[in-house]
């Protein structure tokens, strides 16, 4: 984590609304997480996207205790992201501030009835996709999240690009396609982010999804820092 260029990451988030990180998951760790998908004991629930109009494919929410690598990523990534989150809220005129320790933030969630873990493992097959959406889950929302690609593009699957859209007031939506390699992560907003205009900062709405898989199978792990009701 210390080897990452957090100055560059913060600048990319401010400018583009997303930032990529590499080197945090090895191929073996990616394979180990993906191969855990059939093990129901690891998860608290399963969602088939087509049943809810979310797209095609499915995902499972991990149960507590989280797998060690997922728990470590969640804790370690929160620490450098909390400063960005607090700076963004200040720029957008929001009063909420986040504590330095992730455990303290989870206590805030749990006291409000948000006790269910939100990190998840997603699986897509040929023709599957994920509609544009936001991962809110309750009153307490940490404004950034991270998705790690566990599969190898061009080898395990084709298509299936990570997509962000940004809706600025009185403007058409802007799309951002984020290329990822196996083990790479993308940091992006859960809900909205600040953009600097001629009269100061204003708030833009963000959504994310995955384009249609052309072939193969794609696994992703999502790291969301707030828990769900």
Shape: globular
| Overall pLDDT | 96
Uncertain stretches? none
Compute the number of strand runs. Answer: 15
Tell me what the structure shows.
The protein is of the alpha+beta class and 229 residues long. It is 25% helix and 34% strand. It contains 5 helices and 15 strands. It has helices at residues 6-16, 27-35, 49-52, 68-91, 102-111; strands at residues 19-21, 43-48, 55-56, 58-62, 120-124, 129-133, 144-149, 157-159, 162-167, 174-178, 185-189, 192-197, 200-210, 213-216, 218-224. The strands form 3 sheets. The protein has a 7-stranded antiparallel sheet. It is globular and about 50 Å long. The mean pLDDT is 96.
Question: Could you outline the blueprint of secondary structure elements for this entry?
Answer:
Elements: H1 6-16, E1 19-21, H2 27-35, E2 43-48, H3 49-52, E3 55-56, E4 58-62, H4 68-91, H5 102-111, E5 120-124, E6 129-133, E7 144-149, E8 157-159, E9 162-167, E10 174-178, E11 185-189, E12 192-197, E13 200-210, E14 213-216, E15 218-224
Antiparallel strand pairs: 1-11, 2-4, 3-6, 4-5, 5-15, 6-13, 7-11, 7-15, 8-14, 9-10, 9-13, 12-13
């Amino acid at each position: 984590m210390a080897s990452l260029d957090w100055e560059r990451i913060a600048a990319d988030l401010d400018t583009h609304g997303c930032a990529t990180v590499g080197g945090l998951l090895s191929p073996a760790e990616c394979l180990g997480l993906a191969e855990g998908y059939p093990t129901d004991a690891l998860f608290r629930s399963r969602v088939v996207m087509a049943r809810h109009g979310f797209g095609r494919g499915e995902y499972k929410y991990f149960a507590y205790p989280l797998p060690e690598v997922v728990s470590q990523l969640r804790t370690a990534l929160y620490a450098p992201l909390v400063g960005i989150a607090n700076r963004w809220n200040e720029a957008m005129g929001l009063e909420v501030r986040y504590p330095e320790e992730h455990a303290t933030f989870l206590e805030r969630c749990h006291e409000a009835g948000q006790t269910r873990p939100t990190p998840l493992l997603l699986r897509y097959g040929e023709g599957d996709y994920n509609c544009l959406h936001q991962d809110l889950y309750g009153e307490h929302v940490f404004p950034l999240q991270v998705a790690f690609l566990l599969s190898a593009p061009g080898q395990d699957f084709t298509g299936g690009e990570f997509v962000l859209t940004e809706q600025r007031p009185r403007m058409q939506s802007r799309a951002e396609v984020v290329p990822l390699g196996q083990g790479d992560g993308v940091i992006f907003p859960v809900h909205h982010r600040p953009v600097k205009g001629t009269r100061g900062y204003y708030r833009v709405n963000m959504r994310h999804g995955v384009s249609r898989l052309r072939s193969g199978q794609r696994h992703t792990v999502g790291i969301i820092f707030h828990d769900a009701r």
